Amino acid sequence: MRIAFGCIGHETNTFSPVLTSINSFTDGSYYVDEEIISAFSHTSTITGGFIENANKLGIELAPLLWTFATPSGTVDHKAYQTLKDEFLNRLHDTRDIDGIFLDLHGAMVTEQLEDAEGDLILAVREIVGALPIVTTLDLHANITPKMAENSEVIIGFDTYPHVDCYERGLEAAEIISAIVQGKIHPTMAYRQLPLLTSPPAQCTTKPLMNKILERLYVLEAQPGVLTATLSMGFPFADIHHAGVSILVTTDGDQELAEQHINEFASYIWETRQAFNLNLISVEQAIERVSQTKEKPIILAEGSDNPGGGGPCDGTVILNTLIKNQVKGAVVAVIADPESVELSIQAGVGKNVDLEVGGKTDSLHGNPVSLTGYVKTISDGNFIHKGPMGRGRAGHMGRTVVLEVDGIEIILTEKRIQPYDAEVLRSVGIEPADRELVALKSAVHFRADYASIAHEILEVDTPGVHSPDLFSYDYRKIRRPIYPLDSYTTWQT
Ligand SMILES: [Zn+2]
Questions:
Q1: What is the pLDDT of residue 107?
Q2: Residue 400 in 3-state DSSP?
Q3: What's the gap in Å between 157 CA and the centre of ligand 1?
Q4: Which residues pair with 298 in a beta bridge?
Q5: Environment class of residue 362 by beta-carbon count within 10 Å: exposed (0-12), middle (13-18) or buried (19+)?
Q6: What residues pair up with 247 in beta bridges, in sequence order?
Q7: Any residues with CB less than 8 A from the CB of 1 and at least 6 apart, and which?
Q8: Are 240 and 146 in contact (CB under 8 A)?
Q9: Which DSSP letter does residue 367 get?
Q10: Which of 111, 115, 116 is nearest to 76 (CA)?
Q11: Mean pLDDT, residues 358-381
Q12: Cis omega (within 30 of 0) on the bond before 17?
């Protein structure tokens, strides 16, 4: 059995003014042919799990193209078209395959397409005909009818932080192998709810989602059910299909799939009010820090999360920490290539005058004028050691640790979500020893930091990834939708 596989991946934040160019893909993760196998073997990733189980199951692998750009604004349509042509040409030239596995995100938007993955899956369908297409999607996928119609099976991540990618990759190999052998005949039910939720509310280590996940596992264990997915959606892509969707796949029994999905969707709909959030201001968070001797306190700044399209150079927290002289605080990270360059020119052990951050747009705070002491200079390369993507190489670009009045600022060349503590440790900062660690991450950091943190505070700062859904000017999303429209109704 021979299975082709690959990825064109992006999570598009349509509120970000930064257009995602072809370079964002080619300078990021971009692998072809056997490079894909070397990049992902023995990693806790979707494709890593898929490769491992494929080897066990005797599947011959036909790697195509695997590329993923760090989340940012709308994708340049020509860039998408170039990558899609490259992907399809490779698929076209690959002989004697029995199926295809697509490792996609599910929230990519181009200048001309609200549903880029739906477009890609359909194009793949037109080439492979009746061969099975198994697609994995992120928990933040805005799953559209087009994606569902053209995939035999869609498998979504269960967890947020996404710590089950490897397992979903194993599952994808298992399922496609069983389909090709004629052991199963999957049929999928799909539902969309008029429900938008914010990332901090989607976290599966918190009680609400944890309970929902338990119920999803009970559903998956029912006789005849092959797999089920609750996709929480990506609310920062202003497209018609953004929001919560559900999939239930059974072995050939559509009626059973419909029955289960109606029950589960009703349960989620009835739970909708519980997804509303309680956020605090940075000032309130700093007040809490001053009241405790325990450390560290983690400040999660979801609004500038580069993992969801934030510019990663927001200065609201940095500015407040400096003003309040919060010694022992770390800011991870501020992406500012210009300040990195000037710090390197100054050299280790020297002071340097900088305008830090706030250079991408005016939404996330202004540049901060400061004099900093250049403590560390690094090439910014590290290996993930936390539960997310363990084993994968991380690249921050050249990286500098700057000290300002007892506050450490990690300046990077690239935008990087600091969810793995190696971002800090690789530049000589032990987060457990610090009073306060400010992270540009909404939820993923919990996978690696929950065991270190004395307390985690979710702070409300302005930005393109703000957890406050009411702070956005939605234009394209279907209405009514809860909680934007309180009188939203839904029936099975
Ligand atoms: Zn995600």
A1: 98
A2: strand
A3: 8
A4: 437, 456
A5: exposed
A6: 190, 229
A7: 57, 58, 59, 60, 98, 99, 177, 180, 181
A8: no
A9: -
A10: 111
A11: 97
A12: no
Q: What would the DSSP string read from start to end of 423-469? A: HHHTTT--GGGSSEEEES-SSTTHHHHTTT-SEEEEB---STT-S-G
pLDDT at 369 over 90: yes
Between the CA of 139 and the centroid of ligand 1 the distance, in Å, is 5
**How far away, in angstroms, is 58 Cα from ligand 1 center?**
30
291 CA → ligand 1 middle, Å: 34
Closest by CA position to 143, among listed 99, 196, 106: 106
Average pLDDT over the chain, rounded to whole?
A: 96
Mean pLDDT on 365-390: 96
The per-residue pLDDT for range 209-220, each reduced to its tens digit, is 999 999 999 999
Cα 360 to middle of ligand 1, angstroms? 23
The lowest-confidence range among 95-99, 275-279, 407-411 is 275-279
Pairing between strand 186-192 and 133-137? unpaired
* 162 Cα–ligand 1 center, Å: 7
Task: Report the predicted TM-score, pTM, of the whole model to 2 decimal places.
Answer: 0.91
Element (H, E) at 118: helix 116-128
Q: Of the candidates 359, 392, 382, which has an alpha carbon nearest to the alpha carbon of residue 41?
A: 392
